[in-house]
Amino acid sequence: MRNIRLLIEYDGTNYVGWQRQDNGKNIQGAIESALHQILQEKVNVIGAGRTDAGVHARGQTANFRTETKLDFLSIKGGLNGLLAEDIVVHNVDEVPHDFHARYSAKERLYSYTITRNPSALLRNYSWYVKYSLDIDLMQRAASAITGTHDFESFCKANSDVGNHFCTVSSAIWLEEDSLLRFTISADRFLHGMVRALVGTMVDIGRGYIQFDDLINILAKKNRSVAGMAAPARGLILEKITY
Amino acid sequence: MRNIRLLIEYDGTNYVGWQRQDNGKNIQGAIESALHQILQEKVNVIGAGRTDAGVHARGQTANFRTETKLDFLSIKGGLNGLLAEDIVVHNVDEVPHDFHARYSAKERLYSYTITRNPSALLRNYSWYVKYSLDIDLMQRAASAITGTHDFESFCKANSDVGNHFCTVSSAIWLEEDSLLRFTISADRFLHGMVRALVGTMVDIGRGYIQFDDLINILAKKNRSVAGMAAPARGLILEKITY
Q: Which of A80, A121, B41, B71 lies deepest, with the highest CB count within 10 Å?
């Protein structure tokens, strides 16, 4: 039994998310169907991050176990030949038997893009925020969430995870022309966490939530006290580190 | 009679091009319909560049004459409210009566993006070239076309323009990570010219056409001797200067 790892880029615009489900096109299902054709074998593809509908990935990582003897190039070529243009497999390699795309991950990196003007070309890859924003205050908020914290207030309420502690190793806002780019890396992320953090920091940047309230929001461990979730379209899963 | 100018960004992916025509969704027609609703008046919108199907614009400029007394913000807000998300009007202002978006233009700037790896996120905004390319040679070719030349060999054969002289003021290839970006500015462009130039320079970069042949290709004034046309999706009309 071989354990094969995939490095995957996708445009999530036309998908209901990474996870296999019955209510629409999903990335995991598309890759599993293609592998079924290529390997003549049913496989279960495990993704590092279960991105929501409309969320993109430049560096999603997944693995699956298989009996195939096919080489990496044949698997990669087969996948890219069968998959739609909005999913691209960039690398295929073999990993130790106990490698698990999700549990073996040491760090995850996400980016979030905000535009200060509406954009036709970036409309599926950014959030247009019309309010004037205090970027320094947003960076202070990003610095305040860096480190180990209980992020339950930034986790979708219907999530049934027991432990809400995450260690954020970096959280940075960068201004580039009319774009605002946020990057955040952590050992783990809760469901909806990046979008809830971005939405809350935007609320702080526009003065709707006070910076000093951020500590209270974290302490309350209740999603309803944090800000709105930023739209899915601005979020990209950039990289998984093992 | 007022003469109103529009600065327009659009994603050309789902359009048959700028120009009004019966065979599908076009940018000019979409803007004219929206203006008809807003102004209660039929107007003729003149674009600076008639981009082909799949070609994008960050800085298309257009003008129309109207009897309306509506202010700029109302026209802009009305257009962005009525137009689909893939067309955005960034600015509306008033120009002298003799201003003509196409004939008054002094310089036009286009960009063309090539990816060295297939990309899911950039698939509609770039051309994936799998050949290895000699970028230095491509830049030598770009420098060779700078200046005033007869570009008939790079003009679509069915075009009925008489004068094929264009003055290219700059033509530059830039490598950024796994992207190759070409920018070119000129006083005018012939139909299909940027795509024919990019295709020919790629043919030179991969050794399919010799650099020394470029001068012969220009001299022959015949589209069939130049290289293939690069795909529309990589081309963006960046800016018109008046």
A: A121
